[in-house]
UniProtKB/TrEMBL annotation:
Pfam family, one: Pectate_lyase
Reactions catalysed, as given in the entry: Eliminative cleavage of (1->4)-alpha-D-galacturonan to give oligosaccharides with 4-deoxy-alpha-D-galact-4-enuronosyl groups at their non-reducing ends
Family that this chain belongs to: Belongs to the polysaccharide lyase 3 family.
Major place of residence: secreted
Upper taxonomic lineage: Bacteria, Bacillati, Actinomycetota, Actinomycetes, Micromonosporales
Enzyme Commission no: 4.2.2.2
Biased composition (Pro residues): 214-225
Entry annotated with the keyword Signal: yes
Keywords: Calcium, Lyase, Secreted, Signal
Listed Low complexity bias regions: 226-239
Name recorded for this polypeptide: pectate lyase
Subcellular location: Secreted
Keyword Secreted belongs to the record: yes
Cofactors required: Ca(2+)
Amino acid sequence: MGEKGTRRRRVLLGAAVAGVVAAVGAAGTIAFAEASFSTDFAGGSASGWSKSGGSWAVASDSGNNVYRQSKVDSEAARVFAGDKDLTAYAVQARVKPTNFSRPEGFVGIGARAQSATSLYRLVLTGAGKVELQTLKSGALQVLSSATVPVTPGAWYTLKIEVSGATVRGSVDGKALLSGSSTLLPSGQIGLTTGHATADFDDIAVSEIGALPAPSAPSSPVPTTPAPTSAAPAKPATGAWPKSKGEKKVSATIDVPASGLDGGMKRYYGIGDGGQGESQDPMFKLADGAVLENVIIGAPAGDGVHCSGSCTLKNVWWEDVGEDAATFKGGSSAEYLVDGGGARSASDKVFQHNGGGTLTVRNFQAEDFGKLYRSCGNCDTQQKRAVVLQDITVTAPGKALAGINTNFGDTARFSGITIVGDSANKVVICEKYQGVTSGEPTKIGSGADDTHCVYSTADITYR
């Protein structure tokens, strides 16, 4: 991070940011030291940043101000600052991805931005990669990439350096990426997302000298940095965790926004283990709550209910009754299931009754009906989205996802492994005509690049 102070030399960001200093410098939002620019948005202002796409605003994150992009369906959300004549410099920022609506979604920082469609950028993707990219008049080229564990809700420190024809990037001081490009000789700094939401903080810019030419500009760097907040380790596919004690439950456990860590204990005792839709849930999560490190045994009633946005991290269902989890938030709700697994779901594993986007990743299921179903006959219907990423399912199973195309639902798949289905009986994506009363009508299945989005490369059979 750039050191804040009052000693001034040549203003790195030029006249545009100099005007910002005059306007908000007294509030401590922006300061310069040793030809550098830094901001932590502490003054509550984002003046001096030009916007292109998305929904940007200064917001509070655990009592600290951040610059937030909150529109998850924005294909390209960007903000820029500084002078287009800037050449050799480094940009560093703390970045927290909060949701990806698809695996190719990204969050990151930019340098040498000439326009909204021409810049160098260092991004984290929903598919678990860090990429050093060139975007020139909308044409994308990946200069270098590496695999990383990208966890929504975790903070990462990204840094991109540009000098001459050399472009370099790092994550948390590790996994240095290098590339060579002469497409963009100068330009502004930027923050950017695509099909994702994120918080940004502690932006720092500094002048740099010459950089060594990359030895292999287009080769991925085979290092894997850990995120600021590491995701819990999950057992290998097919292995299930052992419980560290048991807890019998006689009534629904309300999980507040502050969350609940179950310490890998086994919770059981709600309902009768059947398919009755009137059963109470074992856990009911408040908006924004995190339920983690829990084994849910039988009977488990109607599993987990999310009243709004929620995160289920390392949660395991030994014997699904009605549904493993039901998502009931509004149209802007964001749900994440990260790790864990489910068995014996004769109907559905995940039921999506509300709106918003559900992302399920690093998950395994066996002996199930549908892994995901967008409600086919809820009284109130709306557009829903699901992202299934790095999923392993073991037959028997009927379908991975069922969606209502008439309400604009989307389902995106990547890294899907189907075990024991030599006849390819598991349907990847079923399409329905949803209703508000009566029963929905199945109207087809398969990829279409609009509602059911995947390719043959996204599905592996073994």
